[in-house]
Amino acid sequence: MASPTTSALFAASSTGFLLNISNPKMPIFYLALLPGVLGTRPLTVYDTVKVLVVVAGHVFLGYKAKTALADPNKIGILNRGAGARMVGAGVLVAGR
Length: 96
Fold this sequence. Notes:
about 100 residues, mainly alpha, 4 helices, about 0% strand
């Protein structure tokens, strides 16, 4: 598989950023989450870099998942695996 180009990564990250910013639940979630993760002290440049690195990692993983799931065979394997897990969960629940 070819490595992602800079323009493709920029397009994916800017699309994700705009989708998250336009959804009012995401900023509220981050505002609620950050004090628990980073504490109540003022944010530093280091804290901002840490958050940006984590978000960039999520963007990269999402891009890789999108390209990996473009193959219909891989989607079929994923669907069969998810179906098997659901059947297994149903059997466990029925067995109780």
